[in-house]
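Intended use. Records like the one below are meant for learning the mapping from a protein sequence to its folded structure. Do not use them to infer anything beyond what is encoded.
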Amino acid sequence: MIDAALLLPPAPPPPTKSDVSVSRFDLEENERGVIEAALREHHHNVTHAAAALGLSRGALYRRMERYGL
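Structure written out for the chain above:
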């Protein structure tokens, strides 16, 4: 008799503190990454990228200036 539990892959070990990257929680780095991704996805059309991010064009331009984009 085959037990269904034997067919499941082994569970991965829980992450240790050394596995968790501190930069993952860096708000500015993450915001910059999201803005860059939105701009790429919308072919650098600021109006469309701002709408996708829920920002006004002016707010997106200010954030782009803050991050040197």
